[in-house]
Amino acid sequence: MKKILIVLFASFLLVACADKPKADTLVVATSPDYAPYEFINPDKNGAIEGSDIVLAQYIADKLGKELVLEPVDFASIPSGVSLDKYDIGISGFTFTEERAEIVDFSITYDTSESACQGILVKKDAVDQYKSFADFSGKKVAAQNASAQLMHAEKNLTGADIQLVAKTDDAILQLKNDKVDAIAISCAAGDIFMQNNDDLIMSDVQFEVDPDDGQMVIVSKENPELLKQINKIIEEINEQGLYTQWFLEAQEVATDLGLLD
Fold first, then answer.
1. Which of 87, 116, 113, 102 is nearest to 29 (CA)?
2. Cα–Cα dist 77/31, whole Å
3. Which of 29, 36, 133, 239 could form a disulfide with 253 if both were Cys (CB 3.0 to 4.6 A apart)?
4. Is 27 left (phi over 0), alpha (psi -120 to 50) or beta?
5. What pLDDT score was predicted for residue 22?
6. What integer pLDDT is reported at residue 191 of this predicted model?
């Protein structure tokens, strides 16, 4: 009986130890293909960096947890969070009705992406595009499951929407004339314009809510975590920390040539 008790006690300790890392970690899903928000730094052995990653680390530190990053495809993050595969998702998410059906949203931590949403085109073709109708019959790239895809599908009804996994893929396709335009945030478009003289944002813009912005997504089954994250983001907003993180990440990404 004593041996049985010892074995049972040892088994209990193993189970407890196995559960402890999960309780002490914050598993954050992100799609590291959107510099300067989240990207892979080849100069640091493939470390994931970016302003959203600094945000994730800040939240983990405030919660007293170890940050664990899970790089996954952007479109799969909301479902993964809803199924508790990840504690939260941080990857430039904005509110959509479709996402709201399966996850909860934090308060906004950045509005630079949402304040302006438009269409990136070749500079030598920009005069062709003065309205949504001018994109009829054109191939327009948009990242799968993104807010830009939602805007494109709603407004560019006559266009041939091309789904891409990463914005970098869309840029390459536009430069090689595989697509005619890219639905993209103006902030991201401006960055790509700085590094590509042949690209420019058209005058055509999507109608957006200026108060909307990037948010953390959390499982609907974890309201307490959402409450804690909202409190942390309030602190970040009051101190203007995210803007600082973004500028620092933008400099690193530019030096690495990730914004070309």
1. 87
2. 8
3. 36
4. beta
5. 64
6. 84
Distance CA 80, CA 145 (A): 14
- Dihedral sign of CA atoms 216, 222, 225, 230 in order: positive
Locate 184 and state its tokens: 């993209």
With 0-12 CB in 10 A as exposed, 13-18 as middle and 19+ as buried, what is 64? exposed
Q: How many CB atoms are located within 10 Å of the residue 111 CB?
A: 18
Q: What is the pLDDT of residue 8?
A: 35
> Which tokens sit at 177?
């004339």
Cα torsion at 108, 213, 48, 50 (round to 10°)? -90
pLDDT for res 161: 98
| Per-chain mean pLDDT for the chain | 89
Whether omega before 36 lies within 30 degrees of 0, making that bond cis, reads yes
The pLDDT value recorded for residue 260 is: 60
Weakly modelled stretches of the chain, pLDDT under 50? 1-21
Closest CA to 170 of 33, 46, 75: 33
Q: Which of 167, 139, 157 is nearest to 35 (CA)?
A: 167
What burial class does residue 240 get, using C-beta atoms within 10 Å of its C-beta: 0-12 exposed, 13-18 middle, 19+ buried? exposed
Q: Phi and psi (nearest 5°) for 15?
A: -65, -45
pLDDT of residue 2: 36
